[in-house]
C-alpha cells in the first residue's frame, strides 16, 4: 500500500541518548516534512526538504537534524534527547512544495 | 506574522445537528487552504482543499468549506454530524509561491458528538 511509513511507532528514550526517527515514502513525492504535535500547540514544523539533497529549518528546529540523501527517506535525528522533546512526531510528504501533504501515522516519543 | 487561527478549542454538537468550524488566516496574499481531520491515535487525513476557483469546495465524508476572501476565512461545515465525526480538526495554509512551501497549522478544534 502506497504511503508514508514511520518507525518506530513509539519509543521511550533516556535523556542524553541519540535517536533517529525513520520516515519512508513510496509516492515519489519531492517534498517531505517533519512536524511535532503537542497538546494545545497543534503541529509545528521542525525541518523540511523541498527536494532530495536539500533541507531547511522550520519553526522549531533546535535539537533536531535531518538529511535527505534520496527521494524516499527523510530521517529525523535527536542528537542528545531532552525531556522537552517528548512529543508525537509526524512525517509528511507532498508532490511538491505548496501542495497538500500526506501524513504518516506518527511516532510517540517519550524522553525520561 | 503569518498565522492561522481556530478560535474554538472544543465544540460539542448533537448527532444529526449541523456543524461549522471556524478558521481565519493572516496573510498578505491568498494562500492555499486545507482542512485535515485527526482521529485519536492516528495521523492526519485531508478532508478538502482550496486552491482557486469556486469558493465553496466539497470534501470527503460530507464536509464542505467556504473561502471568504473579505473575511480571510475558510470555515468547515457539515449539515448533519455523525458520531464517527468526533475527532480533532485542523485548518492549514500554505503560501502560494512561497519558497518554503510548508503547511502552517492552526491549533485545532476538538469535536465531540453527543448521542
Please tell me about this protein's structure:
- The complex is a heterodimer of chains A (112) and B (115).
- Chain A has 112 residues and is an all-beta fold.
- Chain A has no helices and 11 strands.
- In chain A, strands 2, 4, 5, 6, 9, 10 and 11 form a 7-stranded mixed beta sheet that branches. In chain A, strands 1-3-8-7 form a 4-stranded antiparallel beta sheet, with no helix packed on it.
- In chain A, strand 5 and strand 6 form a beta hairpin.
- Chain A starts with a strand and ends with a strand.
- The mean pLDDT of chain A is 94.
- With 115 residues, chain B is an all-beta fold.
- Chain B is built from no helices and 12 strands.
- In chain B, strand 5 and strand 6 form a beta hairpin.
- Chain B starts with a strand and ends with a strand.
- The mean pLDDT of chain B is 91.
- The interface between A and B is medium-sized, with 27 and 26 residues.
- Unreliable spans of chain A are none
Query: Separation of termini of chain B?
Result: 41 Å
Structural class call of chain B reads mainly beta
* Structural shape of chain B: globular
Mean pLDDT of chain B: 91
Helix content of chain B: under 10%
- What separation lies between the terminal Cα atoms of chain A? 35 Å
Name the beta content range of chain A. over 45%
Overall helicity of chain A: under 10%
Mean pLDDT of chain A: 94
The oligomeric state is: heterodimer
Amino acid at each position: 500500500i502506497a504511503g508514508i511509513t514511520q518507525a518506530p511507532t513509539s519509543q521511550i528514550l533516556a535523556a542524553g541518548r541519540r535517536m533517529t526517527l525513520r520516515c519512508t515514502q513510496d509516492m515519489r513525492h519531492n517534498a517531505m516534512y517533519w512536524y511535532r504535535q503537542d497538546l494545545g500547540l497543534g503541529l509545528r514544523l521542525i525541518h523540511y526538504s523541498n527536494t532530495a539533497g536539500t533541507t531547511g529549518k522550520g519553526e522549531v528546529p533546535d535539537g533536531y537534524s535531518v538529511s535527505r540523501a534520496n527521494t524516499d527517506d527523510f530521517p529525523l535525528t535527536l542528537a542528545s534527547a531532552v525531556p522537552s522533546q517528548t512529543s508525537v512526531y509526524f512525517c509528511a510528504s507532498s508532490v511538491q512544495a505548496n501542495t497538500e501533504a500526506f501524513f504518516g501515522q506518527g511516532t510517540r516519543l517519550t524522553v525520561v | 506574522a503569518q498565522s492561522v487561527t481556530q478560535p474554538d478549542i472544543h465544540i460539542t454538537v448533537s448527532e444529526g445537528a449541523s456543524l461549522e468550524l471556524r478558521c481565519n488566516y493572516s496573510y498578505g496574499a491568498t494562500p492555499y487552504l486545507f482542512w485535515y481531520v485527526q482521529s485519536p491515535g492516528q495521523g492526519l487525513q485531508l478532508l478538502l482543499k482550496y486552491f482557486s476557483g469556486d469558493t465553496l469546495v466539497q470534501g470527503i465524508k460530507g464536509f464542505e468549506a467556504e473561502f471568504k476572501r473579505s473575511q480571510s476565512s475558510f470555515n468547515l461545515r457539515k449539515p448533519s454530524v455523525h458520531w464517527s465525526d468526533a475527532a480533532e480538526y485542523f485548518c492549514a495554509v500554505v503560501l502560494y509561491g512561497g519558497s518554503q512551501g510548508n503547511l502552517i497549522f492552526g491549533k485545532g478544534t476538538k469535536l465531540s458528538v453527543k448521542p
